[in-house]
Specification:
It is a single chain. The chain has one domain (2-124): 3-Layer(aba) Sandwich (Rossmann fold). Helix content is 32%, strand content 16%. The protein contains six helices and five strands; from the N terminus they run βαβααββααβα. The protein has helices at residues 15-28, 43-47, 60-65, 90-95, 103-109, 126-132, and strands at 2-6, 33-37, 73-75, 78-81, 117-121. The structure holds adenosine-5'-diphosphate (ADP) and magnesium ion. This is ParA family protein.
C-alpha cells in the first residue's frame, strides 16, 4: 500500500481535483483505492455525493481518540472516508497529545493489506500538514 498526501499551502490550488481524479484513474486501472478527506470544508466528500456525514464516519475518532479507521463509504469504485466541519476541531486535540501525529499513519498501517493506494486530500494550511503526518513526501 502506498499513501499519497495531496498538499499545497494555498486553497484553490487543485488538491481536491487531483485527489479525486487520480483516485478514480487508479481505481479504473484496477487498483484498490482509499480516498481520505482531511479537509473540514469537505469538498471531496460533497463532490462524491456523500451527505449526512457524522463525525464517527470521518477520521476524527482516529485523531482524537486513537480509534481504528471508520468503515469507508463506497462510491464509483472508490472507498472513501468522508469529512465534515467537525474535523476542524480535531487538530487542537492532536496538538496537545503526545503521539497524536502518528495516529492516522498507524490506523492506515492496520489496513495496509486492503488497499493498493491511499490518497489524502488535505486542507490548505501548513499547520495541518504537520499535525497529521500521514505519508512521506515524494518527488
Ligand atoms: N486542472 C484544472 N484546470 C482548471 N480548473 C481546475 C483544475 N483543477 C481544479 N480546477 C478548479 O479549481 C478550483 C479549485 O480546485 P480544488 O481542487 O477545489 O482546489 P483545492 O482543493 O486546492 O482547494 C475548482 O473550481 C476546480 O474545479
Ligand atoms: Mg480542496
Amino acid at each position: 500500500m502506498q499513501t499519497f498526501t495531496v498538499f499545497n499551502h494555498a486553497g484553490g490550488a487543485g488538491k481536491t481535483s487531483i485527489s479525486l481524479n487520480v483516485g478514480h484513474e487508479l481505481a479504473a486501472s484496477g487498483l484498490r483505492v482509499l480516498l481520505i478527506d482531511l479537509d473540514p470544508q469537505a469538498s471531496l466528500t460533497g463532490w462524491l455525493g456523500l451527505t449526512d456525514v457524522q463525525p464517527a464516519d470521518t477520521v476524527y475518532p482516529v485523531a482524537v481518540d486513537d480509534e481504528p479507521l471508520p468503515t469507508p463509504q463506497q462510491r464509483y469504485g472508490l472507498h472513501v472516508i468522508p469529512s465534515n466541519m467537525n474535523l476542524a476541531l480535531a487538530e487542537p486535540h492532536m496538538l496537545g497529545a503526545v503521539g497524536a501525529q502518528g495516529r492516522l499513519s498507524r490506523a492506515l498501517a492496520a489496513v495496509a493489506d486492503q488497499y493498493d493506494a491511499v490518497i489524502i486530500d488535505s486542507p490548505p494550511a501548513s499547520r495541518s500538514s504537520r499535525s497529521w503526518v500521514p505519508s512521506r513526501p515524494i518527488g
